[in-house]
Amino acid sequence: MPQPPLAVLAFMGFEWVVDMPLRVGDTIHSRSKTTIKRSMRDGGVIVEERQVINQRGEVVQHGKFTFLVAKRPA
Hints:
Blueprint: E1 8-18, E2 29-40, E3 43-53, E4 59-70
Antiparallel strand pairs: 1-4, 2-3, 3-4
C-alpha cells in the first residue's frame, strides 16, 4: 500500500556540486536516494542524495539535502 507523502517541517541544509555545465537543449533527469533516516519523538531527519543526469548519462550535478519531517499518523 502506498505511503502518504512526508510533511517537511524544515529544510535544514544542502551541499551541491556542479560537475559540468548544462547547455540549452540538454535533456536532464534526476535520481534520488534516501541515505539517512534518523527517528525523533515527533518526526525525524531525512538525508537524500540527488543526481542530475544529462542525455549522455553524465552526472552534471549532485548533492545532499537534509529535511526535518513530521511523524506520519499511525
